Amino acid sequence: xxxxxxxxxxxxxxxxxxxxxxDTVWKKYNTATIDETLKRVDTTGSRTILDIGxxxxxxxxxxxxxxxxxxxxxxxxxxxxxxxxTQKENENLLHVSVxxxxxxxxPSDRFDTVFSTSVFHFIRNPNAALxxxxxxxxxxxxxxxxxxxxxxxxxxxxxxFLKYIDRAHYRCYNLDECIKMxxxxxxxxxxxxxxxISSIWGLMTIVGRKM
Length: 211
Description:
Layout: H1 2-25, H2 27-39, E1 48-52, H3 58-66, E2 71-76, H4 79-86, E3 95-98, E4 111-117, H5 126-136, E5 137-148, H6 153-165, H7 175-185, E6 187-196, E7 202-210
Parallel strand pairs: 1-2, 1-4, 2-3, 4-5
Antiparallel strand pairs: 5-7, 6-7
Helix pairs in contact: 1-4, 2-3, 5-7
């Protein structure tokens, strides 16, 4: 527990420092990641959406721009990142909470769709997090998980490097590993693929439905 708390504190401190310039520094990466993620899922009919590790609310803002009437929620470990979200003055993005992916502060069967983008490689207990994502989804709801994929040599090298220099980083997975974890949590897989958004960034997106 003490080690877990220390890791959480490192993640919080890291993103506290980055929060005010996050949207600028990571704009190109975030834009490409969100575009590719949303290409792979249709949010039509989703009235309630949760983004786990929502950061400054970029994905939720994009979802709102594409379709009106969606009630969006976000959670993140970093209060400072969430403050950047609320400062955007979009009333639809104000449902944000400081929370760990393994202990979500929402009732069961709450959301039509849950997103997790570029967060999974930080999570120390991915199985517990997936169980929580499953719990808060409505029956027949969908999880859309996008993260770095070890199928690509650049990501394997980055994964090894970050383990030495960045204690907030945990590990990257390949597509088959993530599919198995989603299956073990009870999800049926609707779509799963890998792709590159640049010469460095190789990603995967998996769409799982709550059985």
